[in-house]
Amino acid sequence: MIHVYSFSKGRGFIKYQSWNQIRSLLAHSSITPIMKDYIHKKIYYYYEFLALKQTNVFYKKYWKYCRHIPKNELAIYALYGLNKAIQTYNPKYLFYTYAITYIDGELFTGLTDLQPLTNLPKHYRKKNAWKNKNEKLFEIKTNSVLIQNDWQIDKLINNKNKNKNIDNNIINYYNKIYKYQQIWSQINKLDAFTKRLYFLKYDYEFNTIRSTKAVAELMCCSDEQVRIKFETTRTYLFGHSENRISNTH
Predict the structure, then answer these.
(1) What span, in angstroms and rounded, lies between the C-alpha atoms of 75 and 80?
(2) pTM, rounded to two decimals
(3) At what angle do helices 33-61 and 71-88 cross, to 10 degrees?
(4) What GO biological process term is on the record, naming one (predicted)?
(5) Mean pLDDT: which of 149-153, 161-165, 201-205 is highest?
C-alpha cells in the first residue's frame, strides 16, 4: 500500500517509494481520466506548500523588486505554476525539480505583471490597511482541511467501489480548488488591464479584498469602467449563473 504522512502541523511530501508507484500509474496506458485527475489533485494537495515556500524564497531573493507587490498575489502565480507542472508532468522525471522549474517561471511572470503597483502614491502604500488586507490567502492555504486517512492508491485501483468511501467534504474541497484554478487560468488569458482588475479586487478564492472604487483608484480609471469590465467578463469566466461563485460580486 502507498501511505502519505503529514509532518508536524503541515503536510509531508510524498515518499520516494510512493513516487515510483505514482509515476508507474501515470505512465500506464490504461489509466482512466478519473484516476489521473484524482492523482493530480492529491499531488497538488501535498505540494501546495512547496509553491508557497518558493514564493517566500523568491520574495526574499528579489526583495528590491517585490517591495510593493503583495506576497499573496505573487503566490497565485506560484500555485498556477504548480498546477501547470502537475498537468504537464512527465513521469519519467522527478517531480520536485520539474515543479520548481514551473513555479519559478510563473513567479517571474508574476513579478513582471505585478510590477506596475510600484507606481502607487507613497501615502497610499503607507496605509497599514492596504499593506495587510491581502493576508487571507496564506491563512487559507496554510490551514486547509487535512486528510485524516492515509492515501491508498492500490485500494482505489483494485476496487473501484472504494471510491465511494472517500470523504465527500474532501472531494468537494478539491473540486472547489480545481474550479478556482480553472477560472484563474482563464483570467490569465484576458488583456492586461482586465486581468489586473481581477488580481486587485479578489483573492485566490474570490473573496473581495478591495472595493470597486479602490480598484478604480489604483488603475487610474472610473468606477463605471471597472464595473463594465467585470460585467462583460463574468459570464465568460464563471459560465451560467448557477455555476458562479457566490462571493464574486
Answers:
(1) 8
(2) 0.45
(3) 140
(4) DNA-templated transcription initiation
(5) 201-205
> Confidence class of residue 120 from pLDDT cuts 50, 70 and 90?
very low
Q: How far apart are CA 21 and CA 1, in angstroms?
A: 10
Pairwise CA distance, residues 75 & 52, whole Å: 6
Q: Which three cell numbers stand for residue 154?
A: 492500490
Distance CA 203, CA 180 (A): 10
* Structural contact between residues 105 and 81, judged by C-beta atoms closer than 8 angstroms: yes
Task: Please state at what angle helix 223-238 crosses helix 212-219, rounded to 10 degrees.
Answer: 110
pLDDT score of 2 more than 60: no
CA-nearest of 181, 155, 141 to 49 is 141
Residue 54: per-residue pLDDT: 92
* Identity at 76, one-letter amino acid code: I
d(CA 174, CA 161): 20
In this predicted structure, the answer to whether residue 164 has a pLDDT above a threshold of 70 is: no
In angstroms, how far is CA 55 from the centroid of its own chain? 12
